Amino acid sequence: MVVIKPYSYTFGLSIMTKRILIIDGKSNLEESLSYLFLGEFEIETVNGGSNGLAQMAQFNPSVVILDAALPDISVLGVLEEIQRAYSRTKTIIVSSFQDMDAAIKSMKLGAYDFVHKGIEPDELKKRIKKAMRLLAQIFHF
């Protein structure tokens, strides 16, 4: 598990930590994404859907980056559990394949976004920041 900390910002009396949980599978998202967020977001990375769900309550992320290739649980099962128990969290699914059916199913189950692993790092960062701005507007952070 990798933990990269430091960043939070305030809105009124509330503090919303800019936290991202990366639930990794077989693709080593941690290696390719952790550097992108260094110093800007608080990052935690776990391997596998079961570990990711266990970490949700402790870490309380604003955004989850969810690898579509999990070794232990289906990505849709993890997404459903996140939506059920942590409805404020925005989930971005990252897939090696450009599978339109999977993207549609994910969005119907409540995923915030579905992206290809080849997405440009700056574009992914924009999408994450947009998700955090949306949370701030909805919940008045």
Structure write-up:
- 42% of the residues lie in helices and 27% in strands.
- It has 141 residues and is α/β, with parallel strands linked by helices.
- Strand 7, helix 4 and strand 8 (113-116) form a beta-alpha-beta unit.
- Helix 2 runs parallel beside helix 3.
- It starts with a strand and ends with a helix.
- Residues 1-15 have low confidence and may be disordered.
Q: Find the CATH topology.
A: Rossmann fold
Mind telling me which CATH architecture this is? 3-Layer(aba) Sandwich
Strand order of the largest sheet: 1-5-4-6-7-8
Q: What is the global morphology?
A: globular
- What is the CATH domain class? Alpha Beta
Q: Number of folding domains?
A: 1
**What percent of residues adopt helix (DSSP H or I)?**
40-55%
Summarize the biggest pleated sheet.
6 strands, mixed
Mean pLDDT: 83
| Percent of sequence in beta strands | 25-35%
Oligomeric status: single chain
CATH homology superfamily name: Response regulator
N-end to C-end Cα span:
28 Å
Helix and strand sequence: EEEEHEHEHEHEH
CA radius of gyration: 14 Å
Contiguous low-pLDDT stretches (5 residues minimum) are 1-15
Please tally the β strands and state the result. 8
Task: Supply the number of helical segments.
Answer: 5
Derived structural class: alpha/beta
